[in-house]
Amino acid sequence: MPTLETERLILRDFVLSDWEALNSFLSDPAVTRFMHFASWDEEKRRRWLASLVQEASNPHRDAYHWALTLRSNGQLIGWLVMGWSLHASEEGERTRECGYALNRHFWGQGYMPEALQAAITCEFTVLGTRRIIAECETENVASARVMQKCGMEYEGMFYDADFEGNWANRYRYKIVKSVPR
Asked: Could you give the angle at the alpha carbon of 124 between the alpha carbons of 120 and 130, nearest 5°?
């Protein structure tokens, strides 16, 4: 996957030297309170980073995990994933799903909508994705706002499980690639 660049960010593959910064925000309860990462210990986070680094060398990977870094100094401030949807069978084979986390010291500054918009554009123009969905727990108003800022439309509220089997009420948003007429 190509590195993506925005006005303020560079989205790139993870490297092992990202550990300290990644662990810092993924171990922050304020960041992960609505996410599966909340139950992960340091060893599980460390194994996950190693798997992301290994997966980055696979030219046929089905998910892209981007390290969100500041253009100004290279500091890792977040994570964004785009992969095949858990709901693909009900939504169609060209549906992808995204997720993200951002160091809380960078909340409210527009970084996540900037990163997500770049990833959505890449999905539609490079990978041929037709539909992208995102979900957040209903209490996670900030995450829902990120989706709205990126042009995603509210699809509904669902009680479902994440990929680790954690059940919750979630809002689902979608964006569909426009087809020229």
From this structure: 105
Tell whether 119 is covered by a domain: yes
Q: For residue 157, list its beta bridge partners.
A: 171
pTM of the model: 0.92
Report how far residue 12's alpha carbon sits from residue 76's, in angstroms, rounded to the nearest whole number.
10
Spatial separation of the C-alpha atoms in residues 131 and 120, rounded to whole Å: 9
- In the chain, the number of structural domains is 1
Q: Which two tokens stand for residue 36?
A: 């599966």
Q: How far is CA 94 from CA 115, 158, 180, in A?
A: 21, 21, 18
pLDDT at 2: 75
160 part of a folded domain: no
Is 137 a member of any domain? no
Amino acid in position 74: G
Residue-wise pLDDT for 8-36, tens only, equals 999 999 999 999 999 999 999 999 999 98
How many residues are recorded in the chain?
A: 181
* Burial track 23-36 (b if 16+ CB lie within 10 A, e otherwise): eebbebeebbebbe
